[in-house]
Amino acid sequence: MSDANRRPTPGIADDGDEFHFCSTCAFSAACLESGYDKSLLRDLHVLVEHIGPFHEGEHIFREGDPFTAIAAVRSGTVKTYVTDHEGREHVQGFFLPGEVIGLNAISQARYPSNAVALDSVMLCRFSFPNIAALATRMPGLQQQLFKLLSLDIGKAALLSGNFSADERMAAFLITLSRRYAARGFSPNRFLLTMTRTDIANYLRLASETVSRVFRRFQDDGMIQVERREIELKDRKRLEKLAEDVLRST
Amino acid sequence: MSDANRRPTPGIADDGDEFHFCSTCAFSAACLESGYDKSLLRDLHVLVEHIGPFHEGEHIFREGDPFTAIAAVRSGTVKTYVTDHEGREHVQGFFLPGEVIGLNAISQARYPSNAVALDSVMLCRFSFPNIAALATRMPGLQQQLFKLLSLDIGKAALLSGNFSADERMAAFLITLSRRYAARGFSPNRFLLTMTRTDIANYLRLASETVSRVFRRFQDDGMIQVERREIELKDRKRLEKLAEDVLRST
DNA sequence: CTCGGGCCTTGATCTAGATCAGCTGGGTGG
DNA sequence: CCACCCAGCTGATCTAGATCAAGGCCCGAG
Questions:
Q1: How many domains, in total, are found in chain A?
Q2: A46 or B212: whose pLDDT is higher?
Q3: Among residues B101, B134, B159, which one ends one of the domains?
Q4: What is the mean pLDDT of residues B59-84?
Q5: Taking every annotated instance into account, which residue ranges of this chain make up the domain HTH crp-type (chains A, B) (predicted)?
């Protein structure tokens, strides 16, 4: 069942007739535990495609591409962004293992943003028409899809509030930490897979401001940051700073 | 939902056995045109509850209330917002006739924000468990729900970008205009049902800034605004200003 | 009718964060 | 080994928009 040793064969999964749900796929757990009969699980399994690896800087989809599929990140980090006609990049989100990209494309049948790999990225790809059709027969799967979509609305609302640089940065670090923790990674020590500029474009700051906030947080003893490695040394205070931003989550 | 406010004629609508979809309900059109058989349409109809009116300042639900239902606005305007522990109000959205509130509550089973009527508001209330169950039998309805959810993700992303006061204000006016137009109201002359402060809290501005931007837009001949009445006099330029904000929509 | 209280506007000042400029240091290719 | 380059850091300055202050206007209550 470990997907670590699954080879990155593109196209349909390479394990013939067995069920091999990868542990990171957001759908697997929810559906497995619902106790569906084997033929439905097989249906779900068949419409999964394991794709990758995408290398740093490679695009998974681009703005305007026709929408066909959503994808769960198995490993690596994906950044979604749009570029406005003055060349400013607006980062919409970072997607860690277990998280699903492409959900905001459903309404227009086109991807409304670009998705790019920040490091080496493996994905589980689900044809959306197929998974939606299957969901009509698996209420648990439908429920899971509704939840994922609803969750993303909340995530976006987070960013949109009127908060200071410190508050937004603290919220960013805390959510990263929680998301890593949810996947079994260390909540207090992790790698920032994105550049300072990416963080800045996500938090609506200048990259210089990101640097300065990091430094100030470090001088205050809240974090220890060295290049891309970061350690949260005082979660209490970070959570306190972040609490207003995260309240609506 | 529904404080002490549920009106007489609670429950099933007052038109006996006929189907009487209200024209504003976001689901009706999509489902009607899909040509489902009569019994399914009846199911959909039965789980609708028409509630209201809510008067200006009355709450429809509050942050933390258990989530049971989504609701389509039939008339009036609903504002959703959260208050942080410094008392700052963060407006998350304004909902016009035809639009659906409560979608972001699915993932946590609680409403993550407050919803308040800005004027006299009538709603169609749909029990979420019931409509989700029905959706498994009506792919068109499921599709509609997915679309609505996905749309809201995009809407939230709009706000979260890094744009100037002018850009955000122009985008706000253009989207309002488009949404009114979609419901058959005049796209160029409409009423701002919210206060300047509400607009400010939505656009992450101070209310003084909202005033000043209105004045500047008016002096530039792009709009004519008098108290709550506004007329868009130069859509071209407004759309141009808004285009970067709206690109990802 | 007058009074009072929101809501809105306008002007003056202030500041968080942007922008500009210059520097550093690690990683990579030759 | 060096040379270059780009991510990141830091200091100096600038500015969009916040904040503070002062009226004005509409509207509802008495």
A1: 2
A2: B212
A3: B159
A4: 95
A5: 163-236
Both A75 and A138 in one domain: the answer is yes
Which of B83, B141, B150 is the best substitution to test chain A (most A C-beta atoms within 10 A)?
B150
Q: What percent of chain B has pLDDT over 70?
A: 83
The whole model's pTM is what?
0.85
Chain-chain contact of A150 with B149 (C-beta, under 8 angstroms)? yes
| Whole-number CA gyration radius for chain B | 19
Q: Are the C-beta atoms of A32 and A131 separated by less than 8 Å? A: no
How far apart are the two ends of chain A, measured CA to CA in Å?
A: 32
* A105 near B CB under 8 A: yes
The least confident of A197-206, B12-21, B175-184 is B12-21
> Which distant-in-sequence residues (6+ apart) come within 8 Å of A193 by Cβ?
A76, A77, A94, A118, A119, A228
Q: Are B159 and A160 in contact (CB under 8 A)?
A: yes
B180 with B98, same domain: the answer is no
Neighboring chain A residues of B143 at a CB cutoff of 8 Å: 132
B205 in the same domain as B94: no
Evaluate whether residue B228 is within a structural domain.
Answer: yes
pLDDT higher than 70, residue B16: no
Last residue in a domain, options B128, B159, B190: B159
Residues 117-176 on B with a CB inside 8 Å of A are: 132-133, 135-137, 139, 142-143, 145-154, 156-157, 159-162
Question: Are B121 and B228 within one domain?
Answer: no
Q: Tokens in use for B234?
A: 């130069």
| pLDDT > 70 fraction of chain A, expressed in percent and rounded | 83
The verdict on B154 and B165 lying in the same domain is no
The closest nt to B218, taking CA to C1', is C9
Mean pLDDT for the stretch of residues A196-200: 97
**Tell me, in Å, how far CA of B129 is from C1' of C20?**
56
Does the pLDDT at position A33 exceed 90? no
| Terminal CA-CA length for chain B | 30
Pairing state between β B69-75 and B121-127: antiparallel
* CB spacing of A104 vs B161 below 8 angstroms: no
- Is residue B182 one of the residues assigned to a domain? yes
Domain span at residue B82 reads 26-159
Chain A residues 38-77 within an 8 A CB cutoff of chain B: 63
Residue B32: which pLDDT band, with cuts at 50, 70 and 90? very low
B202: domain CATH number? Answer: 1.10.10.10
Q: Answer yes or no: is pLDDT of B79 > 80.
A: yes
Domain-embedded: residue B3: no
Give the type of residue at B127.
Answer: S
Shared-domain flag, residues B134 and B238: no
**3-class state of residue B10 by DSSP:** coil
